[in-house]
Fold this sequence. Notes:
homodimer; alpha/beta; Rossmann fold
Amino acid sequence: xxxxxxxxxxxxxxxxxxxxxxxxxxxxxxxxxxxxxxxxxxxxxxxxxxxxxxxxxxxxxxxxxxxxxxxxxxxxxxxxxxxxxxxxxxxxxxxxxxxxxxxxxxxxxxxxxxxxxxxxxxxxxxxxxxxxxxxxxxxxxxxxxxxxxxxxxxxxxxxxxxxxxxxxxxxxxxxxxxxxxxxxxxxxxxxxxxxxxxxxxxxxxxxxxxxxxxxxxxxxxxxxxxxxxxxxxxxxxxxxxxxxxxxxxxxxxxxxxxxxxxxxxxxxxxxxxxxxxxxxxxxxxxxxxxxxxxxxxxxxxxxxxxxxxxxxxxxxxxxxxxxxxxxxxxxxxxxxxxxxxxxxxxxxxxxxxxxxxxxxxxxxxxxxxxxxxxxxxxxxxxxxxxxxxxxxxxxxxxxxxxxxxxxxxxxxxxxxxxxxxxxxxxxxxxxxxxxxxxxxxxxxxxxxxxxxxxxxxxxxxxxxxxxxxxxxxxxxxxxxxxxxxxxxxxxxxxxxxxxxxxxxxxxxxxxxxxxxxxxxxxxxxxxxxxxxxxxxxxxxxxxxxxxxxxxxxxx
Amino acid sequence: xxxxxxxxxxxxxxxxxxxxxxxxxxxxxxxxxxxxxxxxxxxxxxxxxxxxxxxxxxxxxxxxxxxxxxxxxxxxxxxxxxxxxxxxxxxxxxxxxxxxxxxxxxxxxxxxxxxxxxxxxxxxxxxxxxxxxxxxxxxxxxxxxxxxxxxxxxxxxxxxxxxxxxxxxxxxxxxxxxxxxxxxxxxxxxxxxxxxxxxxxxxxxxxxxxxxxxxxxxxxxxxxxxxxxxxxxxxxxxxxxxxxxxxxxxxxxxxxxxxxxxxxxxxxxxxxxxxxxxxxxxxxxxxxxxxxxxxxxxxxxxxxxxxxxxxxxxxxxxxxxxxxxxxxxxxxxxxxxxxxxxxxxxxxxxxxxxxxxxxxxxxxxxxxxxxxxxxxxxxxxxxxxxxxxxxxxxxxxxxxxxxxxxxxxxxxxxxxxxxxxxxxxxxxxxxxxxxxxxxxxxxxxxxxxxxxxxxxxxxxxxxxxxxxxxxxxxxxxxxxxxxxxxxxxxxxxxxxxxxxxxxxxxxxxxxxxxxxxxxxxxxxxxxxxxxxxxxxxxxxxxxxxxxxxxxxxxx
Lengths: 555, 555
């Protein structure tokens, strides 16, 4: 068996201008980064504004399990399959964060015969978007401390500055720090810390902005903390939004690369999927829809988190109307949900599979609430037995969803053609009537309760008094119309990562709420969220090196 | 009068592939970054290894003054002039640091009709080299704290970790910080801080490395601090060099852009000119020499600092033999050196000019020590009178150097043709017999004394006992063969920035010494050196914004 990186290195990549040509893009519509990566220019994006848009397909998955589901792999394989059956198609996914690759290991975008390339670049600096986010974020941070240093006209309370700094490296020592030491010339001492770049609100903003003007407006609305009389202080008040926009102007242009089968792929933006919405940029998805008949995209984690945020945040903000949803499941992951230990997942176990299907069933039911038709993709593993697949397909049929076996990992797009045809059937039936889960004008507590009860199936939601007061204060300050972004364990519908399947009767405790006023949502934290990872005892960085020009140890 | 940015925006740029073609580079030898920037591939650099090299011209200047000398402008104008008189030529300069542009303001590379473009890109992210340096530097920092966290096998003394972190932003609050707060999970608390990226030893290494292998070896030799028993601890011992090399592999490829007159320009690397050597990368200079008959490059600050470091560090390391030196002076700057106040510099004053020529004369004399012939470029200002220019030319003639009036600022290459011909005459006379100032195997104190006495004309050098002991310890540890890099005020030959002209009889006090074992030099600090600037009360960032796609406020 070849590894992902071996397969990726053997890819017959087309020049990026030829990939652009598949979308009707001329060489001058592209800003090349090397010969295999390009950005679509702002000028071209503006040209596209009035184009009719293609069909948007969301790929999501059951609750994540240790054996993995292969969501990105399915996203890529489906796009290649649609291309094979004659559709003009693009795929849209997130960019990888550079920092963590030096901790554990970098990864393919997809896997097996269903990957996006060039893999090395995508795991390193790529086109510099993350660095631009880091620069813009930290410029604002420097301007805050500079403002404190030069007399603090805005009367910012240094104890209530919530804007931290970011760096795209796993560096636990930077989580909590005291800065401004060393005397008067170095400003005021205060406690703060660093997050990883993917956790920056600037990243979330980049991913939700519709164009440069909207980007600047959103950056200006960032609340960096509070004044001594508890009023929110914004980036606009510090005069930072224009300069931040200048730093991000190139980064807002979508990155175009390709799959192993030369299907156009937009890889753009990389926000966290817990404290942010976890999807690629709206700009990329919109451009892809204007340039293609079919667009396949994905959302972070399982459907309870990723798809919900995609629908309630991204589609709401971007006025997108998905035409179909692909829900990825594997026989192995469902057996795990049914109580089978990781080491025993290769052994046939139909009863456990059927028990685990409760998880799948609830996701199907949830997705239907959004009015979008669902097809289940059974991402095939060689150990899957015919009886298991039959049982899984029967379960899905009973729940009103077709389930298609897809062999894209082993066979590329050819192995996903049946899935592709199933998606086309759903789209052409035209049954989608997309609607968001809750109205924009509902109170913030009600929005959180709606997600927790309707999607997670919680019995109750616990709001500590401080949280209730904070949400009320934000509604008072004019942030009540924001959608909510719940940061919860991805491993269970509940707050307990060990409660697999389809738990019932639990409480969702809201520990803390955070305002992302620029991104335009309120984050409700159910558990502790790590926003700056650390390196392991022996980080991958110790093994990563160049070997005759090839990067080794990164994968 | 048009501003530099207005002139730059009106530039008729050629596609970067056409600029490459002027050097015999094929499209596949270039990695494009947009249509007006490219990197020359490692593969092509390797191909060039055995090529004969063209003539290297160093542009340096008298001691810097508030009215400015126009060193980069002359560098660019001379290259354009050489091109006009039929030479195949490239220009090599440093990259701008992004961070400070948001403090005061960004700048042109050159000025008037003698500039390198695209100006906006070069003042923003350019091709991402600075971000790569930041990433590599901070990965090593994270690996140090990670090593302390996971048991500290190397017995690193946390109090003696000299490796700080870097960020390309002016942020005084980060100069001194305590990190690792917040309990066990966040590692060990210790005091450290941040420098600006240009001050990173990784930047100096990138600029002195000959290829990827040498880069990795140099990164491995970085001394990050000391163990409890005072032994140096290296990046190689932490296993960081391979991963840092991977992060820097693209950055080591020289960036190709162009002048307003479409002369090929390599803009690559940007180390500090005090705690480092202040020149563009050796890789770029070498590639330019392999691809062109004439290469014009420059060194930071005045000739006492910049040219000395270029000769004693860069040329020594890179085995370069410069063919000629252009020493830039202006009538205004010499009058300032002769005691005229800034406001009166536009009034004719021949006696003050002649008095100020003492500064010029000493630089001429110093440059001759290196065995390279010198021509003085009088960078023309409209207020210069004929009598002043005549007096200046007579002074130079008496000191054995031709002085040529150059009007490249107003007229571009056409205005510098006489200078170009003077340079060609020097080169074709073939009188250069380059030699470094001091032998590699001299003791470190002797090297410092040689520079201070022969170049600065100091009467004595003061070494505190701790400094003497430190230098002796480094010689003991095998670093005695390093050249020295003196960090001194650039405004005077002495340690007193107010002592203009050609002061005598002063002492050079060495305050502190620092080891740059990867870059391969010992830094001797004569004064306080600021390695992390702050933002002013009203930073440029408050005015920088996009206006209909154009960046305003940055210049």
